Each structure stands twice: as structure tokens, then as C-alpha cells.
Amino acid sequence: MGCGVQPTGVIGAGGPASGLTRGMRLYFASDTGLRAVPLLDRDIEDLGSVMKLLAQGPSAAEQREGLTTLVLAPGGYTVTGDAARVTVVLEGPYWAEARDQATGQLVCTLASFQSVREEEVRADEVEVTISPADGPALGPLRCAEFRDG
To answer: Is beta strand 35-38 parallel, antiparallel or unpaired with respect to 25-28?
Structure first.
């Protein structure tokens, strides 16, 4: 009243925010689909380290919340990223299907990390390709393909 601000009508602000949020997240499997867990206390140096973290799985507290990992530690691999593209080259076969939660965990987590490394790239723009030693490559895949809703 006394501050000089005049009352206004309803002001439209558009639709709700959508897409992936910025910041490093690990994606774990659950009964309801993929769930993102922020990585606040770790300094991740490279994309290969992300694969190791996924294979280690969620913390005990996260496991009590129903989270698990379906990503197996591959025998040998290289992971490279350039702008909105990430490529995983495996020395052996790929352990999951193209559209299952394990692949979603990998794609969404690598996209999250790549968007932190490349500030001009949004996580939902990152395309991940998985190239096993035997068989065709999977991808390019985007995280949106694995999110429910």
C-alpha cells in the first residue's frame, strides 16, 4: 500500500519449464523409471569416470529409496565428447538393449556431464552413440527418449 506499487491483473508467463536441468546428475533405475541424483560432492574429470560411477551404483540411502544401477562395468571402453555429441566405444559387446533403463542411465548421465563440460550445450541437445566391438552402433540417442511423460 505505501510502497507505490500499483495493483495489476494476471500476467501470463508462458508454460512451465521443461527439459533437463543444468548440473551434473547420475541417473539411476527405479520401479517408476529413471531418476536423477545430483552429484554435489564429487569433482568429475572425464566422461570415462562417469561410467565408473554408474557401475558403482547408488549410495545406501539412495538404494533405500528404491534406486539401483543396471549399468555394468564394461571390460574396456573409451568415451569422448565434442560439443553436443558423445561417443562410447566398447572393446566388447554391449550389455543392454537400445531402449531399456540401462541405456537410459548411460545416455542421460553422459548428456548431463557433457552439458556441464560444454556450457553452451544443453543436456537435452546431447546425442550419445554407443559403439560395441561387435554389432551395430546404438544411436545417436537423446535422454528425452528415456524419460517418462
So the answer is: antiparallel
